[in-house]
Amino acid sequence: MGEFELIHQYFATAPCAQGGAGVALGIGDDCALLELPAGEQLAISTDTLVAGVHFPDPCEPFLLGQRALAVAASDLAAMGAAPLGFTLALTLPHAQPAWLQAFAQGLNAMAQCCGLSLMGGDTTRGPLSLTLTVFGSVPRGQALRRSGAQPGDLLCVGGPLGDAAGALPLVLGQRQVAAQISVPLLARYWSPQPQFALGLALRGRATAALDISDGLLADGEHIAAASGVALRIELERLPLSSALLTLLELPAARACALSGGDDYVLLFTLPPSQWPALQAAHGELRVIGSVAAGQGVQLLDAAGQSITPAARGYEHFKAASAAK
Ligand code: ADP
Ligand code: MG
Question: Per the domain annotation, does 97 fall within a domain?
């Protein structure tokens, strides 16, 4: 199969490549053309996923297609951008029809779920890797930056933390557990849901936001540094799913929530007056701490004493947590 036949069969004819909001010209020319509503700014983000580094190799191509786009799209949600489109640069060792078919179906499923149109890309031969660039739009001046957190703000997250890290031994086939535990955890790893509705709701409310990709502590440092404030996280308030708490003892589940990557849940700071209306509309939100004068991320126990976590960042494919 030639390069152009491959592009046509699996990508140009995919439902998600048939245009959509903002797409004036899609796949087939030297460039795609995007139309931006008046008064809006273009939000752009790129992510590369390398086989064996960012995902296990081999893996299910459908799940890979889903996850690759979700990971990239999450940055748009974190910025408060509305989804427009994306490009896909795909490097493949061989053109295997069954693999391409399943990959394109997974990609298409996530594209349609997010409202993102496939607008172009590049196809090359080499070790398996994917680069996705996503485009969104946000009213001028309303993008959710990392730099506006203020002392006195609440520190909040968009949902349970640590599931993707807890799922890692299951993803890697190192551990088998009952389906009622493995199914929800594997779904959190393979098909994270970019929090677009929450990102839009945070426009004009949140003072800072990002999506947690490298772990709560590591990503919290980015808000603290950009805003010139300290973030105080209360260990007891970390939201943990019942599946994670069934898989792991509490300390290991908390370690996943603090230092595990790949959750793609939003972390944001919010003036307390904004909390009631926001929580009423988004039930999964949790306050996990507060913003104070100072610098860095502090972890506090139930008595308000500072504690030092074992690890701050996330290492890909390293299962850090003790199994139950
Ligand atoms: P060029 O040589 O002008 O850069 P290509 O021959 O690489 O263009 O690609 C032809 C068309 O197919 C372009 O519109 C490009 O954006 C699109 N394309 C190439 N690879 C992919 C892909 N993997 N997914 C979606 N569109 C693709
Ligand atoms: Mg060209």
Answer: yes
Q: Which ligand is nearest to the CA of 13?
A: 1
Identify the nearest ligand to the CA of 31 by its number. Answer: 1
The residue segments making up the domain with residue 226 are 154-307
Domain boundary among 116, 139, 162: 139
Same domain, yes or no: 90 and 234:
no
Q: Tell me the HSE value of 123 on the side-chain side, using a 13 A CA sphere.
A: 18
| Paired strand residues for 115 | none
Question: Does residue 70 fall inside a structural domain?
Answer: yes
What CATH code is carried by the domain that includes residue 165?
A: 3.90.650.10
Distance 101 CA to ligand 1 centre (A): 17
Cα of 28 vs centre of ligand 2, distance in Å, is: 9
Indicate if 160 and 257 belong to the same structural domain.
yes
Q: How confident is the model at residue 2 (pLDDT cuts 50, 70, 90)?
A: confident
Quick one: pLDDT band at residue 1, thresholds 50, 70, 90? Answer: confident
List ligand 1's pocket residues with C-beta within 6 A. 7, 11, 27-30, 88, 90, 118, 120-123
Which of 271, 122, 257, 159 has the alpha carbon at shortest distance from 207?
271
CA of 296 to the centre of ligand 1 (A): 44
Question: What average pLDDT does this structure show over 121-125?
Answer: 97
**Residue 195 — pLDDT band, cuts 50, 70, 90?**
very high
Question: Which is nearest to 33 in space by CA: 84, 71, 101?
Answer: 84
DSSP 115: T
In angstroms, what is the span from residue 10 Cα to ligand 2's centroid?
A: 20
pLDDT score recorded for residue 34 = 97
